[in-house]
TrEMBL record:
Entry-linked InterPro entries: Rce1/LyrA-like_dom (IPR003675)
The CAAX prenyl protease 2/Lysostaphin resistance protein A-like domain, residue ranges: 87-160
KW Lipoprotein (keyword) present: no
UniProt name for this protein: CAAX amino terminal protease family
Keywords from the named record: Hydrolase, Membrane, Protease, Transmembrane, Transmembrane helix
Biological processes per GO annotation: CAAX-box protein maturation; proteolysis
Transmembrane feature ranges: 9-27, 56-75, 107-124, 136-156
A molecular function (GO) term: endopeptidase activity
Pfam families according to UniProt: Rce1-like (PF02517)
Keyword Transmembrane: yes
Annotated source species: Pyrobaculum oguniense (strain DSM 13380 / JCM 10595 / TE7)
Length: 169
């Protein structure tokens, strides 16, 4: 089975994705993150791990910069009591499996984008529109460099906001 969206989409793909989403949203932290990350190893054949498409990385960085400026102006840094390793390491690794790697590799293109951008936004209720813009940047990073690129951008974003909000890290 290919790791690119195609006609091989099966209900199993959607079921696995929805199950991991439920775990990510409702499982106690950090256990949900650990479960999703461990699942990624079992799903490694269904995920695009690496890709070289630099133009998408450039687009991702432009969209990310726009989202960051809008976020900084409209909301600004927030304090958090979460551990840095959860925010900067576990959350990006797990969320990128659920919101970018699986949907964009296994779902047909319109559904993969909806999941990667809009569902991600909806599940970040502080500001779903800004979160969707970040989701778009992360989806473009995924298209440009695969899972490592989107996870790295996500981790960078979380580390930057953690530093701005708390001075930790």
């Amino acid at each position: 089975m290919s790791n690119k969206p195609n006609g091989d989409f099966q209900l199993v793909d959607a079921g696995v994705l929805l199950a991991l989403l439920v775990v990510l949203v409702w499982a106690p932290r950090p256990w949900g993150y650990f479960f999703v990350i461990a699942s990624a190893l079992a799903l490694r054949g269904r995920i695009l791990w690496l890709r070289k498409a630099p133009k998408y990385v450039v687009y991702a960085l432009l969209v990310y910069a726009t989202a960051f400026v809008l976020d900084y102006i409209s909301i600004g840094p927030q304090k958090t009591d979460k551990a840095w390793w959860e925010v900067v390491v576990l959350a990006p690794l797990a969320e990128e499996v659920v919101f970018r790697a699986l949907p964009m590799s296994r779902l047909p293109p319109p559904l993969g984008w909806v999941f990667a951008v809009f569902i991600f936004g909806v599940l970040h209720p502080q500001n779903p529109l800004l979160a969707s813009l970040y989701g778009l940047a992360l989806a473009l990073a995924y298209l440009g460099g695969g899972y490592p690129a989107s996870a790295a951008l996500h981790a960078f974003n979380n580390a930057l906001w953690l530093y701005l909000g708390t001075g930790l890290f």
